[in-house]
């Protein structure tokens, strides 16, 4: 899907559907929070949430005392919804409206988090751009967490084709610049009582 078409699609989603009407809704993103706890990040760590939409992860990060958080999404409407929900707290967040495959970071991050953005990239050029961006934007020895639909998960989301991954195919995508820490699969129960199987992999940026 061309970049502008993808942007228009997501603007429409966030302008017409409420939080509880999207499959990725998670009031408490337990898997992501468990991984952040596992890596024992300092409160001043630079954290970026890629394709965050109006996810509640940022709320929990603020509650945990993290002070250097960036939220990126292709949809300005999604970011505006998150800002309105956070109220005055939104001033403590860096907000970026950009596509994950066309993002030009101006700083490096200690923790790169992506739950269900990467798998929307299906063209080789977009995937390569994302990987190159991540390799430049994650600090040396920094951590990256990627969650995608597994090979047992859906083949589409919100009417868009996605790229399914297994542990081996996801690791192979990033192996030039990142070393695998761990991978696992997990089921996400949607608000519609359906189940989506995800594969999550955590990586350490190679010191190359």
TrEMBL record:
<dbReference type="GO" id="GO:0008168">
    <property type="term" value="F:methyltransferase activity"/>
</dbReference>
<keyword id="KW-0489">Methyltransferase</keyword>
<dbReference type="GO" id="GO:0032259">
    <property type="term" value="P:methylation"/>
</dbReference>
<dbReference type="InterPro" id="IPR029063">
    <property type="entry name" value="SAM-dependent_MTases_sf"/>
</dbReference>
<keyword id="KW-0808">Transferase</keyword>
<protein>
    <submittedName>
        <fullName>Class I SAM-dependent methyltransferase</fullName>
    </submittedName>
</protein>
<dbReference type="InterPro" id="IPR025714">
    <property type="entry name" value="Methyltranfer_dom"/>
</dbReference>
<dbReference type="Pfam" id="PF13847">
    <property type="entry name" value="Methyltransf_31"/>
</dbReference>
<feature type="domain" description="Methyltransferase">
    <location>
        <begin position="43"/>
        <end position="156"/>
    </location>
</feature>
